[in-house]
Structures are given as structure tokens and as C-alpha cells.
Amino acid sequence: GSIRPRQTPWWQAPARQQRLLELAAQGTPAYVYDLDKVRERARQLNAISAIDRRFYAIKANSHPQILRTLAAEGFGLECVSQGEVELVFASVPDISPERVLFTPSFAPITEYQAVLARGVNVTVDNVELLQNWPEVFRGRKLWLRIDLGHGDGHHKKVNTGGKESKFGLSALRVDEFIAAARALDIRITGVHAHLGSGIENSGHWKQMVDEMAGFARRIGSVEILDIGGGLPVPYSDDDEPFDLEAWAAGLADIKAVHPAFQLAIEPGRFMVAECGVLLTHATQVVEKDGVRRVGLDAGMNALLRPALYDAWHDIANLSRLGDARDVDFSVVGPICESSDVFAQRVKLPAATAHGDVMLIADAGAYGFSMASTYNQRALPREDIIDA
Ligand code: LLP
């Protein structure tokens, strides 16, 4: 298909640019999140009538103000650890437990116990949990995560389906699970699957719901099909923007085929990737063997995605936003690792120099939440822009 240019990023508006320069002066590296952008994404998904329940996957970005913003837009919150559940109740004290979903993977049983006591929805994804801790689960209403035998996503490291994957109950053990659940008087009300992150294949959704509905009918008591997250965002001008209208139309068709079930989604990236930028200062500009290299005070400790997944994030020189981007630079961080590279080659203004404020774009999802203090570097600061 034709490649449409992406929306002009919010941070290029002159007023925003000024504000970002002020925030950068308070110290970098710093993540900055624009809450209006988060609300815009929430409202886009709220407008899709085929979706009955929306949970935000807080692992993408668990800043309390983002949690409160999305809760205020009617979103539930999906958590993968007891720590995330506690953060949700601390950040959004009035949230009803029905709007919280716990979808752990190999969590200690003590976390299941603590979270079940909170009354939130809990997803189990294997038979062994019921066999080893029957009294924890007896008589409960639970959701079941199934491995549909195939996965997807922007990189093999975010593919969560198939034999090699640790996630979900094997289709081969569904009958065994049903028998174990019956014996414990457990009612399975939701079937869950999440096959990967950053899914571009538009046929994915229909295929997965058809497959999930088959399992749901075998189980019998299922009301909800939770199709996970995985909505992509365009990180570069070469990426096709996600066609939300086509996706919504596809879901409406799916709903028409499977009217017995409510549909739930759990997007993370889509909600917050574009709301966030990482501000950093250039530390040094160095020429070596014909390569011009600009170093930043943010490295893979601040934003791991390029090092871990070869992910692309656009990089701009905020101090020289009006200058032509006409010279190739390699952009690197201060960490003692060869993978501490944000871009092998990106066009930046020729005058780019130490002290310039550099901006790494679309960093709101899996940015701060995956940051570390490797090399004894401080965690990035976080700032919010709200209108
Ligand atoms: N639901 C479950 C059960 C998940 O495991 C995830 C993400 C989501 C929902 C949200 O997926 P999203 O809509 O964000 O694709 N760190 C990687 C992504 C890992 C995703 C892990 N699970 C990255 O930066 O690309």
C-alpha cells in the first residue's frame, strides 16, 4: 500500500518545543509524557463499539498520572505482577477490582494469593497451578490464557506464542484443564490470548478470535474473549500507520460471527508510545574513520529497545530543530556495551554539538519501564505535560 506520512509529532509544535527545552534544562535524561496524546488514544479505542472491555497494559508505562488518566477515560488496568497491582491501587485508589486484571507468567503462588484477596480478575495459564495449589483456586471465577500455537510481533523476542514460548496453556491440555477446573468448582469466564507485540498482520485478529471461540465453546462458561495487546505504532516514516478504522471494522465483523462473547483488549504500546519523548543532552561529537558520532547522556540504560530489539526511534536535535538534517551521524550512549547504539546512521543538522538537547521520539512505551541503573547511571527523570 501507499505510505502515508505520519502525523506531525506533538513535540514539533513551537510551544511544546519551548517547554521541552525548559524541562531538559532541569536535568537529563528525562522522559516527558503528553497526557493529551494519551487521552486521544483512549478516545479512539473507546469509540470502537465492537470492543466491550479495555484494559491498559501498565507494563508499557506505569507512571501514576498515566494510570489515572486512562482510568478516568474508562480503561481497566492490566498487571503482570503483584507490584503492578499494588501500584494500580495506590495510584487509582477508587478503582473497582473488576477493572483490574492480573495476567502473570510464572509468578510465585504468594502473588496469586495476594492478588486474589484483592478481588481482581485473575488469569491462569497452566494446569499445574490447579494441581499444586488447589485450595488457592477452589471455587473461583478465573480467566484462562491459551497458547494458540503461533505467535507474532515486531521481533522474535516479543513473540509470545508457540511451542518455544513460555506463555499460555497448550491446546493439547485444554481437556485436562477443564477436568481439573471442574473438580475444583472453578468457573472459567474468560479466555485470554496475547500472541505478541507490534503486530502488523491484519489477519491476526480474526484468526485468533475464531480459534479462541472454539476453545471457549469447549469450556462452556466463557463470557469474555480477551485478545490481548499488540496494536502497532509507526516508529518511522517507512512504517504504515496502524489503520484503526479497518481494525474496528474487522472487529465488528468478528463480533457478528461470535455474538455470544464480549471482546476485551489489553493494549500497552498503542496507548503511550507516541505520548512520550526521551530528552537527553549531547555529551561529545567525535569523528572516527569517517564516521561522525554523537554521544548522549542517555544510553541503553535509559531506553533499552534499540539494543534489545534493534528497534528504531527517530532522533531530533531539539536545539536546532529549524536546521536542515543533512549529515549522517551515528548516535550512541555512555554505556560500556557495543550495543549501546540508538542509530547506526541518522541525518542530523551538521552543526550538532555537545550541549545540544537531543530528543528520542515515540519513547513512551517500554522506555522508563525497562530502564535500569546499569553502569551506576541514574534512572531518567519523568515529567508530565498536561495541556
Ligand atoms: N497483554 C499481555 C499479556 C502482554 O504480555 C502484553 C505485552 C500486552 C498485553 C501489551 O502489549 P502491547 O499492546 O504493548 O504490544 N518490551 C517490548 C514489548 C513487550 C511486550 C510484553 N507484553 C517492546 O518494547 O517492544
Automatic annotation (TrEMBL):
<protein>
    <recommendedName>
        <fullName>Diaminopimelate decarboxylase</fullName>
    </recommendedName>
</protein>
<feature type="modified residue" description="N6-(pyridoxal phosphate)lysine">
    <location>
        <position position="59"/>
    </location>
</feature>
<feature type="active site" description="Proton donor">
    <location>
        <position position="336"/>
    </location>
</feature>
<comment type="similarity">
    <text>Belongs to the Orn/Lys/Arg decarboxylase class-II family.</text>
</comment>
